[in-house]
């Protein structure tokens, strides 16, 4: 008991780099002791969620994120569901209130808010989203179903967030905290569209429109920002892919220009081999292969537009298989593949 109390005290006072390690220790201990032999942990986390102390909030949320992440992949069992029930009963209400307050802070511009404060609040919001995701995977909790309107409205607000003072400092080569936050939101939307369609249906048209607008809005920034938006594009397209396969939403994607715009402005631009990819291929070929095990051997014949040809090959490989298995690969091909084989025979030497 004393060791647990001291560990938690150290964790809440430790700097960020040490806090994560202590949080891991807490999670290992909680795997055996929580909740039956360590009910104090839940009470302490609940208490901190109501505090106005960013450092303690970050420590508590980091621990909760690590602690609850296993809910995403563990097999359903009575023991697991009892634990989740206890967690939700104590933490879902204060987590919802904290989400509302933090989102209101970051979505309201003020000259008094510094970049550092924005970063801090965005980190807190990102952890809240990760926790929310973990708590929703096994089943839709009653509290979140009752407050779904506020959560969905908040997710839409996050996707539309644009904070110039924060984003201007982000690296071109990796996503910033706000980008990671938006990726997490798209993952949650995908989960709801696949698992809780009935509850999600009243919000789906608005959400699709917001995701679509964000993708189109990033179009002009992609060539400049290199890898920064890759993860967001993937998460957003995964959500749209989960929606478009459902017949009831087919009319959204059958509107004039929608599929053409998605293909030309998003998919094709993100399939093109970038200069940084070529640099890595030349300087670190093993790393390049690790990133893309199916990458093609690069040609030096730029006069033949080999980059565009490579793009065509990748696109056909992606859509050519109608059905496939892990063991045998593609088992049924689309009807147009036979025509594509003629193209390969004529164009690929």
Automatic annotation (TrEMBL):
User: What's one Pfam family here?
Assistant: Cse1
Q: Superkingdom of the source?
A: Eukaryota
| Residue intervals of the Exportin-2 central domain | 67-297
Q: Name one GO cellular component term.
A: nuclear envelope
Q: Which InterPro entries match?
A: ARM-like, ARM-type_fold, XPO2_central
GO MF terms held by the record: nuclear export signal receptor activity
One biological process term in Gene Ontology:
protein import into nucleus
PANTHER family on file: EXPORTIN-2, IMPORTIN-7, 8, 11
What name goes with this protein?
Answer: Cse1 domain-containing protein
The protein's organism comes out as: Dracunculus medinensis
């Amino acid at each position: 008991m004393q060791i647990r109390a001291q560990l938690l005290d150290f964790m809440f006072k430790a700097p960020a780099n040490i806090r994560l390690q202590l949080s891991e220790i807490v999670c290992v201990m909680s795997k055996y002791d929580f909740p039956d032999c360590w009910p104090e942990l839940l009470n302490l986390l609940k208490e901190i969620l109501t505090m106005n102390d960013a450092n303690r909030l970050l420590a508590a949320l980091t621990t909760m994120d690590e602690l609850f992440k296993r809910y995403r992949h563990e097999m359903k069992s009575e023991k697991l569901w009892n634990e989740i029930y206890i967690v939700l009963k104590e933490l879902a209400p204060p987590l919802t209130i904290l989400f509302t307050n933090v989102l209101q802070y970051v979505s309201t511009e003020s000259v008094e808010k510094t970049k550092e404060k924005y970063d801090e609040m965005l980190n807190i919001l990102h952890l809240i989203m990760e926790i929310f995701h973990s708590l929703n995977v096994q089943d839709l909790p009653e509290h979140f179903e009752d407050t779904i309107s506020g959560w969905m409205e908040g997710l839409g607000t996050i996707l539309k967030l644009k904070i110039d003072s924060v984003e201007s400092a982000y690296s071109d080569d990796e996503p910033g905290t706000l980008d990671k936050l938006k990726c997490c939101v798209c993952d949650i939307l995908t989960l709801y569209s696949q698992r809780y369609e009935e509850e999600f249906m009243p919000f789906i048209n608005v959400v699709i429109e917001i995701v679509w607008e964000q993708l189109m809005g990033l179009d002009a920034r992609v060539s400049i920002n290199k890898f920064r938006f890759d993860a967001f594009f993937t998460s957003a397209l995964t959500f749209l892919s989960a929606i478009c396969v459902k017949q009831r939403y087919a009319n959204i994607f059958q509107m004039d220009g929608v599929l053409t715009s998605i293909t030309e402005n998003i998919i094709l631009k993100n399939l093109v081999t970038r200069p940084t990819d070529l640099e890595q291929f030349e300087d670190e070929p093993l790393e390049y292969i690790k990133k893309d095990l199916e990458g093609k051997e690069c040609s030096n014949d730029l006069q033949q537009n080999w980059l565009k040809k490579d793009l065509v090959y990748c696109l056909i490989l992606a859509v050519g298989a109608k059905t496939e298995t892990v063991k045998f690969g593609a088992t049924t091909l689309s009807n147009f593949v036979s025509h594509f084989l003629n193209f390969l025979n004529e164009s690929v030497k």
